[in-house]
What we know:
10 helices, mainly alpha
Amino acid sequence: MLFNILSYIRDGNYALMFIQIASLLFVIFCTMPVHECAHAWMAVKLGDDTPRLSGRLTLNPRAHIDLIGALMIFLVGFGYAKPVQVNVHNLKHGRKSFALVALAGPVSNLIMAFIFLFLGAVVSVLYLNTSLSQSIYTVLYYFLYFAASVNISLAVFNLIPIPPLDGSRILTLILPEKYYYKLMRYERYIMIAMFVLIWIGVLDTPLSFLSNIVYKGLNWLATLPFSLVGWL
Length: 232
């Protein structure tokens, strides 16, 4: 993300630079809290009141934002918020429920990405079929495009099955409990190593490839109703 912003500055495309920065701030302060609140909501629904008692069943960004995780959004397009504490022993179905709690966050990102892509399609329809000005269209379309792209990247990133990402929680359905908790002891070091790999570009290609596939699929679904009636 930082390289994209710098390239816009180098090319003198300040409009796209400001739009991308605005969309990143929107993701950090509005959609990342939805991701964490989705974890909390699912945990409470499945029997664990820990997230509510610890103040995480809220959309207030102050309850969720991690400064380093937010900075990573700007630097590499992937980041994280404060993890929601869940007591697996309180959940109705133990590790199965724990996996559902973990899955709730990435699913919320995909839902939000779909909404942004759908709204982007609406903006395109208005631009093609009404007197919507090109400047307004450009701002709205690229803002929604960037917001959708980052949400998809966050969903794909969080589904990587290594701690402390959400995908590692889904491993509870596969790994024996003793091996899972041994792995979780090293989550801080694994996370640091992973961000180093992202920063030097080792993971860029596979993550971008997967994000691209998801983006194309969601965009096809979002634009399908308008394509069927011949508006796009």
